[in-house]
Amino acid sequence: MDDSDPRVESGDAQKVTAKVKSESSIGIGWIAALPPLLLALVFATGLPAIADGETLRFVYEWVPSAGINLTFLVDGLSLTFALLIAGIGAVVALFSSVTLAGHVHYWRFVFYLLFFMFAMLGLVLADNLITLFVFWELTSVASYLLIGFNHSTAKARRSALQALLVTGGGGLALLAGFILLGSAAGTYELSEIMTMGDAIRDHALYLPIFFLILAGAFTKSAQVPFHFWLPNAMAAPTPVSAYLHSATMVKGGIYLLARVHPALSGTEIWLWTLTLFGAVTAVFASVLALRQTDLKLALAYTTLMALGTLTMFLGSGATIAIAAAVTFLIVHSFYKAALFLIVGIIDYRTGTRETAELGGLAKAMPLTAAAAAAAALSMAGFPPFLGFIGKELKYEGALAVASEPLFVATAAVLANALMVAIAGVVALKPFYGRRLETPKSPHEAPLFMWIGPLGLAVLGLVFGLMPGLISASLVQPAVTAIAGQPEEVKLALWHGLNLPLLLSVVTFVLGIAFYLGHQKLRGFLVRVEQRLPATADQMWDRFLDGLKVLAAWQTRILQGGILRRYLFVVFATTALAGVVTLYVTDAARWPDALPDFSIKHLLVVGLIAGGAIMTVFAGSRLAAICALGVVGMGVALIFVIFGAPDVAITQLLVETLVVILVAVVMLRLPSLERDPMKGARIFDAILALVVGGVVTVILLSVLDTPLDRTVTAYFEEKSMPEAFGRNIVNVILVDFRALDTFGEIAVVVVAALGAYVLIKGTKKAKQQ
Amino acid sequence: MNSLILSAATRILVALMLVFSVYMLLRGHNEPGGGFIGGLLATIGIVLYAIAHGSAAARKALRLDPLTIAMGGLGIALLAGVLAVLFGDPFFSGQWSFPFAEGGDKGFPISTVLLFDIGVYLVVVGAVLAIVLGLEEEV
Amino acid sequence: MEVLLALLIGILVTASVYLMLARNVMRFLFGLVLLSNAANLTIFVAGRLTPESPALVPAGMLTPQGLVANALPQALVLTAIVIGFGLFAFALVLVYRGYDALGTLDTDAMRHAEPIEDNEPTAKGKLEGTSL
Q: How many interchain CB pairs under 8 A, B with C?
């Protein structure tokens, strides 16, 4: 279990100190709500077209050579998400203009919030895998900034980093999965990939694609065992929790699963993985939710439950299960955002979020209480709220799951019953019953605070009473998009007397029982928690500690600050890369017969080899320089023998200059003492032999492949007629590849400048 | 180094080497030679002079600072590339002109290619001398 | 002959790697020179060897007569030699300057940039705020 101390620091703690202005003068902060509101209206204009089954597509070529385009697709699924993002964004912006009014970084907050909104909109509207990935990562960055908004507290910083690392790690897996998917499908456009589901399911890369994309979705949507970052993310200001970590961003993973549903679903592995992980997350999270005493944390765990449920239903291919998922997604966004904001109001007005300290607030805050009641009833799934329809659909969908209806239905009933109990804890307990003393004496919240939650809660009631408002315009197009084929969905409050209704009754009975006994249950859970060896959150810390130990170890080994160790690693890596490549590609070739060569050649080669060996064993500087000179002259001889007079002359002249330079510098350097480590350098010798051997084998393999003389032939053909030069080497240098040569002489100048500065530095150091 | 033979011989040798280096530079397009080889030859000649008469004398004989020569060479090489652009060709395309051409005789060829090679020559001379002379003075 | 040169290059690389792993920075420099030579030879050999026919167009002709040496690797090697010299000269000055400033040629003793730390990083420096 998570959070040994469940009391999260009040996210809005700074309001007490930072709120300098009086409540009545909240200033112009509310204009932050305008952009999302306008966007929501713009998206709403797309509703009729989407309801008619159309999809809209916008294309802007970004990196056309790599198939990366800024393509945007508006269909039922993306429009549903876009409306939720923009709509709830407006509510949240309005809300925070009060709670964060006068905060010294209020406008920074607004920027983060709008930045997140645009990233999230890009995510759900993108039709190109790479574009989607970019926006996906941007939402992670925005989440990091918002969780860490109160960066003066260590907890906020830690939570922000944890969320970034978990979702960012998943993002990397996602990128790999996208690239594999793109190469398997031959396109990065989602709208095309969606139509080739059969080909992708039969593709050899299906399993890696599936698991990599799943890793991205599960980390983003906090499925067990990646769930621990989400409760910690509650360190963010409450409106942010309502927005990112409940209604929108964490549903990014769900969106992704829904988006790739037509291409990847339908296999055994898809069905089992999603159903199992979703069910475990749902039940695990709802049990943990009951254990929390902080209202915000309890809500965070119910969000986990919702995400698990959505994952579970997306595992199935049945239309009714998908319809259940879409409906529940909308229901959940309404009531969960509302409840989070209500908890924000409670915190704002009373100064506490501890359930034990709250009670009987309804009289002081009637509007908030009404909104809380409506949202909680929707959450618990009572008719006539939209939550009821969602729950009935869930049961219908659960029973329609072909392989394990009993398992899914049991998980759904259990999770929902716990939801009923938690709805009571969050919305009933604080407002009714005995009035309890709170740190601040509460009164009703200002308009900008209660209007949003109340509006969302009322929407839950309106859509429940008139489900036709969303069934044809949103739910049906979204289900069509997820299923990949036209589907018909009708939402209704009354489905007749059937098994789902019976399950609902069971749920209510169980739920009320859970609520009445929740104190005892909580005590039991706390005792269980104390027995557990480690929570996932603590395991995360151990994982990070392990990483640091590993980093320290490898830094000591690889980067010990000693030049020859660095070089040893570099050469060993080179050798290893060479050996592995030769082995894997089976490219090693050996000459069939002994090479044909004359005595003259053998003499030159022997001269050079002798010089090299002499350099190694030279006991004095002079001997070493002479040996080096022998090598240089020998190499020049090879150039002469094999028709390279220009190169040979250059080599000879450079050798002369090397000798002059070395002679000049040697005068000032101490004599070359014997190698102090001779004998202890057996590993160096072995490595040197291996590297040399690898180079020889690679070169032999290269020589075994036929030479492509196309470029050389072109130069030979054009040198005289077009470049008016008979020395082809020189023509290449100064004409055909003049730009290269220019770069090279620039390097020579840079080397001279560097050396010049070093020499001048020595002089200055001496004068001082 | 105070060797009478060396300093006497150097006067002729250095002059010969410098002339020969220019010869190598100019003939480079058709026979072995070119800017790199010419530049290295000239450098060795001047280093020889510096060994015989001291690097201060060599600097005086050069008139320009070696790094200035190197930079100038780089500029000349760049100019050869830019000229091609001015004539409407891609950067660094060789531009040729054959004044006094009569019949089979090609006349006197002038080209940006030669200009480029002269730039290479100057860069090699300037850069290597900057290092060698600098070190010699330092030590 | 190519095979023979491939073996020779292997010997050069072996010698240079062994030298570069030495503690004395002068030996490192010698290894660097040998490595440049090995690299130049590698490029040259990879372009195949053509005995004694330079890549020249005979006077009065438009194209070279018969098979001539591969001009492309030659051009690459030629600039590589000059650049290799530039690198060597710079490294030499660096060694000289290093000796001047540090008074040693032993690379093990050159710990100016990465001094020996007493408190090598351990697992003890946990993230702050771990105890929730």
A: 19
